[in-house]
Write a structure and sequence with these properties.
By secondary structure, this protein is an alpha/beta fold. The protein folds into two domains: 138 residues, Nucleotidyltransferase, domain 5, CATH 3.30.420.40; 167 residues, 2-Layer Sandwich (Nucleotidyltransferase, domain 5). The chain contains nine helices and ten strands. A five-stranded mixed β-sheet has the order 3-2-1-4-5, sandwiched between helices. The two termini are 34 Å apart.
Length: 344
């Protein structure tokens, strides 16, 4: 085994995905994720059920990741894990497992900021592929997920500056809540994206959320859609069923417009033309397509991670852990997870 290679076992358990990955430096050797289908029946993630599922899934997921990576536990250099933000019960499962395994193997542990890891997913290298298209520093990153919508100025893997944040509902949360209003099952965000492909984005006009500076707000859009649907359904009970594709396309267009408006302003203020997309909602095809089109028009250099590194996954945790390993940023056994975003 190459002694110069730093092998990191990453563990992700911030919400309803139990994931383990192994990286050798920046190359992803294995990335295994177990999803939790149980939440579909409840229309959203149930925290207690999520933590129980993590307890059930974490050992087989880690075993599979180690097996697929082609290394053994004794080859590991460190164990990285998501310490927050996220569901506290879910985070406790991953944290406790990482700490216990590290004790048994006499390895250092590395706590990772989940949102920072989404950004650093851009540096993950896939074996056998051209991995030269990682963003040069500095770059702007629009991170869009179920719990957060952020604009980040990335000066280095260690130095990230939050320049825009959501003040209430995140874009991903707005997608899922509006999807529920439209009668779509959880998770509804990907279904809105799917229906939108055959709909007219200008069929219905909803107010584009506006906030001072570079911050985001999506609660007003959710309320506007709710009142609009109530009004239309009172006149035609089949309104949603007859207009679902157009409704999805119009909602998606409004959310993407709000995101791109702030991103353009951030690029203007900073003068940075290297633009990256990250977070679970970065898997949205409509957002990707619009960003690429705007990038050509504005002469931006656009960076979009592979789909498997967009949603919650442990590869991004391992990559973030690798950068911290190089700087000697280790944690001790007293570390504890946290639910709310604490900054970078």
């Amino acid at each position: 085994m190459d002694k110069k290679t730093v092998f990191i076992l990453g563990i992700e358990s911030s919400c309803d995905e139990t994931s383990a990955a192994v990286t050798g430096n920046l190359q992803v050797k294995a990335n295994v994720t177990a999803s939790q289908q149980i939440h579909e029946a409840y229309g959203g993630v149930v925290p207690e059920l999520a933590s129980r599922a993590h307890q059930k899934n974490i050992i087989p997921v880690v075993d599979t990741a180690i097996e697929q990576s082609g290394i053994t536990l004794n080859d590991l250099s460190a164990i990285a894990f998501t310490s927050g933000p996220g569901l506290i019960g879910s985070l406790m499962v991953g944290t406790a497992f990482a700490k216990a395994l590290a004790l048994a193997l006499n390895l250092p542990i590395i706590e990772v900021n989940h949102m920072k890891a989404h950004v650093l997913a851009h540096f993950a290298e896939k074996p056998g592929q051209d991995n030269s298209h990682s963003p040069m520093l500095p770059f702007l990153c629009l991170t869009v997920s179920g719990g957060h919508t952020q604009l980040i100025k990335v000066e280095s893997p260690e130095n990230m500056i939050l320049i825009g944040n959501t003040t209430d509902d995140a874009a991903g949360e707005a997608f899922d809540k509006i999807a529920k209003l439209l009668g779509l099952p959880y998770p509804g965000g990907p279904l809105i994206d799917q229906y939108a492909t055959s709909g007219n984005p200008n069929a219905f006009h909803f107010p584009v959320p506006r906030m001072p500076g570079l911050d985001f707000s999506f609660s007003g859009l959710k309320t506007a859609v709710l009142y609009f649907l109530q009004r239309e359904q009172s006149a035609n009970p089949l309104f949603i069923e007859e207009n679902r594709a157009d409704l999805c396309a119009s909602v998606q267009y409004t959310i993407i417009t709000a995101l791109l408006t702030k991103l353009k302003e951030a690029a203007r203020q900073t003068g940075i033309r290297r633009i990256a997309l990250a977070g679970g909602v970065s898997a949205n095809k409509g957002l990707r397509k619009t960003l690429l089109e705007e990038g050509k028009h504005l002469d931006w250099e656009i960076f979009v991670p592979p789909f498997e590194y967009c949603t919650d996954n442990a590869a991004m945790i391992s990559i973030a852990g690798y950068f911290k390993y190089l700087n000697g940023e280790f944690s001790d056994q007293s570390t504890a997870p946290y639910a709310r975003f604490r900054g970078f």
